[in-house]
Give the backbone structure.
Amino acid sequence: MTATATSRLSGLPDSPADLRTFLHGLPGVDKVGIEARAAALGTRSVKTTSKARAIELAIRMVDLTTLEGADTPGKVRALSAKALRPDPADPTCPSAAAVCVYPAMVPTAAAVLAGSGVHLASVATAFPSGQAPLDVKLADTRDAVAGGADEIDMVISRGAFLAGDYGRVFDEIVAVKEAAGPAHLKVILETGELGTYDNVRRASWLAMLAGADFIKTSTGKVAVNATLPITLVMLEAVRDFRDRYGRQIGVKPAGGIRTTKDAIKYLVMINETVGDDWLSPDWFRFGASSLLNDLLMQRTKLTTGHYAGPDYFTLD
Amino acid sequence: MFEYAPAPESRSIVDIAPTYGLFIDGEFGDAKDTFKTINPADEQVLAEVALAGPEDVDRAVAAARRAFPSWSALPGSERAKYLFRIARIIQERSRELAVLESLDNGKPIKETRDVDLPLVAAHFFYYAGWADKLKYAGFGSDPRPLGVAGQVIPWNFPLLMLAWKIAPALATGNTVVLKPAETTPLSALFFADVCRQADLPPGVVNIVTGAGDTGRYLVEHPDVNKVAFTGSTEVGRQIARSVAGTGKRLTLELGGKAANIVFDDAPIDQAVEGIVDGIFFNQGHVCCAGSRLLVQESIAEELLTSLKRRMTTLRVGDPLDKNTDIGAINSAAQLARITDLSAIGAEEGAERWSPPCDLPERGFWFAPTIFTGVTQAHRIAREEIFGPVLSVLTFRTPAEAIEKANNTPYGLSAGIWSEKGSLILAVADQLRAGVVWANTFNKFDPTSPFGGYKESGYGREGGRHGLEAYLA
Amino acid sequence: MPKSPKAAAAVTERSRLAVRKTYKLYVGGKFPRSESGRTYLVDGDNVALASRKDARDAVLAARAAQPKWAGATAYNRGQVLYRIAEMLEARRFEFAALGVTPAELDAAIDRWVWYAGWADKIAQVAGNANPVAGPYFNISAPEPTGVVGVVAPGSLLGLVSVVAPAIVSGNTVVVIAANPQAAITLGEVLATSDLPGGVVNILTGQAAEIAPWLASHDDVNALDLSGVDDAVLATELERAAAGTLKRVVRPVGGADYRTDPGTGPMIDLLEIKTVWHPKGF
């Protein structure tokens, strides 16, 4: 493990064996308990004015995403325009937080977003599987940053994690952080592949210790992506990490969040677990695509008083 | 930054009449005296209700006695179908009954909707299914009912306590006279209407509303074969004395002062939820509440910091607001008791803490409160407060935790928090408590027997074991 | 024997032409025709004649549905079985038109209610804690065996009496039904009772043709031969089942399904799992 990582924070484990002892010494997570807590938070009723504010905030937190083999410059230009101006019929509608694309598409998006304040996030490190040599992953990262990305979403080596090789996972994150330069680094844990909530907690801490700016649930490419209880474990982790080390780290659930109702449940969860400090696009993002139109429809319904329909919103 | 706007559940779903009589022999009829029941959240009168005197209780028992031969002679499969009907009707009228219960009791709609009513329906479903299977229950090849059951229930879970009493009694072939608590008579009266909708034969269920004396008349009535009581240990003692020598069968579900034990290897965030659930759920008006937190000394500070942080997100207020976590205290009398005991706690040297709370002006309210630095010698560690007040004590070893947990005349429930199975099972073995929750708390199910050791009472409600009390 | 209403009195005046029902199989929650395209005539109705491939598909459907059905709470399963009783009661006239007597209908509906009430109790009767001689927590609990192949008796009550005890605990079934119209009408009742597709699959056809394929199927866990009248066939099927050591419920000749079945039919299709855990600190 490199000196730069260990010298930033004191009291850190300073060898792979110590890292294992540390991570395995964290308090356990009871599955039934955490799922019950997430479900209970989901019963909060957010109406009228608070619902309107929540929708505005959620729109501003969306990382509008396209990560398909079939992506073309045309598709990415349309998506970027949508992120800038989600509702052409309503100029008061805020922009999304960011656009999220593959490295090859970064320059196209950069051209559209230049000077707008909307961030440009690129996946990197042989997304989504992460099964490539380290030098390929670093080149991927540098490429994306050079093309104009100011945020990098990397994947951890799940194979190494599940084999218990925490040191290798740690070192890779440190290396990618360095290669990302000024770009902020989101570390995708691929929680759907980790198997247990205990592992989600350990992977969260591992990523934070290694220098992540954000921890992110998923690539969106596997069967189980973001869920409320998984995100709850991660929110508890960033809360405890800040309490212990004084450093704030963001959280991004990605994949499977399709409705306004879901998005509001996440905001309630943030509100009652970590509080106001994380209720901002600087510290929380939704990795989503179809969510945005549902947010727009709900936003419209609150102002017009009747249910909206999909024909009235752009499909990009 | 993120305030939740008011989210009121509408009252219009429930139609409360201005007055109610006694439900005897399948009909509502007047009594000489009446009393009022109020909404503890705003002290408004909800209805005027009959106050049953000795003659009324006598009539009710006579009606139950008349109905007993044919009810008990029915094939079990027919009794089962009556109970299934009742269960279904309760499911269909759940929202209405939940709103009613919140109005009369003061507990949040979130609880009546998500906990009380589903459990009420489930109890009737569960015992409906035993009515025609009694010979498989382990009580002999032809278990017989006892006759007329006199049942007295408390105000903390009015309709649920009614379900716990009436469902097994009816399933086994008994008939009942039930007296709901003085401050919460309404859901029992609506239940009488459910019985009518189900075409339950007259006299099988009789509801006599009233106060302490009404309960006494019922319990002491010579033609009652079985007495079931849930309430305070003090009254339980009186009842036990009064049935001595009468041959009446008796089950009692009384008070508690449960220890919620958190070990240093507990899943901390879930333990905090369990502590909060254990003492603040239902405003702490729970006989099995985890009112003593026993935390291993090595993690005490860390746990208390987490607990206090969690308590700041508890919402106290209008029971009909869907976001309310903690509702009103049930009555002025109960509020006085909680206030007095809390003052004593502070006087005896424990350190008191509550999160900042805006309490409404009208109605009966108490902020969730914890006392730290409590020892076994403090009154607030020994006496049941029956409110949202937690006493925090520490321990060093599992053996010490067990000793402290058991060091009480009560023995209803306990909680154990640890990630280690062998520890949990060994501690559970040694706790003198009728219900032990590990890594959870306040979980109820009709299949799961509930009841206490020692002065928390005797007999079990729920499960196969719950049939025994109603069989000869 | 049930009679089709079409064999009733001749039409003497001009009346409305009825829309006749087509009797298909009930597999995976849907009503497909036999993949073989075959039908056979039963009281003037063309009824799907199931083939071995239909049986194969039904086993796939039953297996796919089993984990989720077994994973539902016992309370939930009980609710579904009670709903089946509700739907059956509501459709009395259909079964009556097929010739089922009121007494048999009463018994069949009450039988569903009886089993509905077992869902959350069988574990309390068939399971228990064991006082082993050591510091161990030891518990025996029943679990469903899995996918059950059933040759059903001819009557509606008989059919209900073999299907209900199998599914109440979380098994799923593939049933070969002897009395196709009543069986498929029961399928319609099941399809409207919130019963997940695949929990009960009904094949109408010849037991002698289809049953051997269920008996020898590697992915069927148990075989209920209650409805097999032919002793030679029953023996062959039991022998075929031995290939994968299926649990076999033997034919019950002359059974009176109106009497109390006891817990045997349920327990025959349960596995008892015993778990040990040390206690100590």
Remarks:
- Chains C and A do not touch (no CB pair under 8 Å).
- The first strand of chain C starts at residue 39 and ends at 42.
- The first helix of chain C runs from residue 52 to 71.
